[in-house]
What does this fold into?
Amino acid sequence: MSSFNQNIPLVTDKILKSQKQLKANFQAINNSYSVNHIAYNQDLLLSGMHSLLTLRPQTGDPVTSATQIALYNKKVLYGAQNLPNLFYAPSSSQSPIQMTYPSIKADESNTQYTFMAGPFIIYGGLIKGPISQGQLVTLTPGTTLLHVDLTMTNSIVPGAPSMAIPTNITGTSFNISFAASGVSSFDAFYFAIGL
It folds into this structure.
């Protein structure tokens, strides 16, 4: 089959001469359009709508006018990896807002986090014991923490502390403090909000 030819039909062409290429053009358009869209011949009410949106990573932020916004994919460096993330660009080329962050699986790290539209990052995770008095916890990606909560669980030592509190909350880190001294055998779940 011939590939798409945007120059068909020529002004001088008779329909019979261009018929094969016209048919190939319409087939190429239909095949291309049906990728990530509901095809023309599947459902007349839904045809043309997206079934999936795939965004190629951009090298920079798009320029938007006063009447435009943009959703786009841009790679962001996390540790040693350059990972794709979704961004929203407001009108008039205002500062872009990152819409996603890569989640870290629990078996790879104690830290997990997610993203809330706007400037906030929500962190949640489990710190496996034993936990030492004043143990430092640093969360990634880097933000300025606004709030941290701790909940203790799985205490296996009699007389272990019943409550741990976050102290020295600065930047993206905090310390775990509890009533007993030394090392205590409990796990701690944390919930934190960063800006």
